[in-house]
Prior knowledge:
The protein has one domain: Rossmann fold, CATH 3.40.50. It is about 20% helix and about 15% strand. It has four helices and five strands, in the order ααβαβαβββ. The chain has a five-stranded parallel beta sheet with strand order 3-2-1-4-5.
Amino acid sequence: MYASRGQRQVSWYQPDPRLSAALVMDAAASLPAGRDSAVIDAGGGASLLAQRLTIAGFTDMTVLDVSAAALAAGRARPGSGRIRWINADLLGWKPARAYQIWHDRAVFHFLVTPPCPTAARSSWPPSPPTAPSTAPGSQSPATTRPG
């Protein structure tokens, strides 16, 4: 998708992830670790959210995306070295660690009807993420939709 359109031409592009950042910040404020909580942005490859949160003092950011091109766009930004970048299909991904805050803005609405647009079509319908993707005492997912 990014190879043919570029990050600003996709329907879920957001020049300022203000709402998503506010949701993640609110979730972190209610957790003991605060801005040191482990945050994952699923489908956030080229999103500006991870950079915005690290600038705001978040210390444990991970971005997961099926698109290597989207991740490359995210990695090209200043400060991206403080973020973990994972190129994987969410439907087949097995997290190696726990996350206290889950954010996705434009992922699950793609998985509404089969066939889903990922490599894991044979695993339809997907199971919801299970431990260790969220840890005991974690916040509910911070999910926003485009538009």
